[in-house]
Amino acid sequence: MITFHGATDVGNVRTNNEDVFHICDAYHYCLVADGMGGAAAGEVASQIFADTAKAVFAGHDGLSEENTIARVQTTFKLANEKILKHVERNPYHQGMGCTAELLAFSQESFIIGHVGDSRTYRLKNNTLKLLTKDHSLVQKKIDQGLITPKEARRHAMRNVILRAVGVDDEVALDVLKGKKKPADLFLLCSDGLTDMVEESDVSAALCAEGTLDEKSEALIQLAKGAGGKDNVTVVLSVIV
C-alpha cells in the first residue's frame, strides 16, 4: 500500500501559482510540475502535463514495471507535443514550458521521470538522498568544478534551465528506477522548496513525528519562512 499527500503555495512574492501537483492513489502515481513562461503560460504548461498523465495512466494496475516505465515515457512525450502545439495556436505563449517530476509504482519498483530542476528525494532509514540531478546551468557548473553547491544556491544564473517539457521538439527525459521497500518516503518538490531550504532542514522535517499532511505543511512553511520567493509545491508518498 502507498499513501500520498501534496500541498502547494503561491509563496510570499509571486501573484500566481505556476506549480501543479496531482496524486492518483487508484493508478499508483503522483507528480509535480513547475511552469515557466510568465503571463500564466507556465501554469498552462504545468496543467497540460498533469492532464496528460491522467489520460496516460488511466487504468494503470501497477503490476508490470515495463508497462509503468512505458507510461512514464509516454506522458512526457505527449505532454511535450501538446505544449508545443498549444504554443503554435497561441504564439503569445511562446517560451512556455515546465519542469516535471513523475513518480509511479509497479508491483515491486518505483519509477521516476525527471526533466528540469524540480527534484525527487527518498528518505530511507532516516537518511535523505537526492535521486534526480538538476538539468540546470548551475548544476553544469558544479559538475565542471567551477562552483560549489553552496555557491549554486545563490548564483545569479540559478534559474536557467537546460531541459524542460514543451521547449524542444524532443524532450530529453531521465528515467530512474529502484526497488520499493516498506517505510520508504519519497518527496517530489519544485525548486521553490530547495532554493529556499537547506537539505538538512528538509530531512529534519521529514524525520519528525507527524502525518504526511503535517510534514507537507512544515516544508511549505520552511520555504515561506526563508523568504518564499517562488511558488512551493511538495508531494510525499510513503510505502506502508
Notable characteristics:
about 240 residues; alpha+beta; Phosphatase 2c, domain 1; five-stranded antiparallel beta sheet; 10 strands; about 35% helix; globular
Kindly summarize this structure in a few lines.
By secondary structure, the chain is of the alpha+beta class.
SSE topology sketch:
Blueprint: E1 2-9, E2 19-24, E3 29-36, H1 41-56, H2 65-89, E4 97-105, E5 109-115, E6 119-124, E7 127-130, H3 137-143, H4 149-152, E8 174-179, E9 185-189, H5 191-194, H6 199-207, H7 212-225, E10 232-239
Antiparallel strand pairs: 1-10, 2-3, 3-4, 4-5, 5-8, 6-7, 6-9, 9-10
Helix pairs in contact: 1-2, 6-7
Count structural domains.
Answer: 1
CATH topology: Phosphatase 2c, domain 1
What is the tally of beta strands? Answer: 10
| Low-pLDDT stretches | none
Specify the helix fraction band: 25-40%
Could you characterize what this model shows?
With 240 residues, the chain is an alpha+beta fold. The protein has one domain: Phosphatase 2c, domain 1. 33% of the residues lie in helices and 28% in strands. The longest helix is centred in the first third of the chain and has 25 residues. The mean pLDDT is 94.
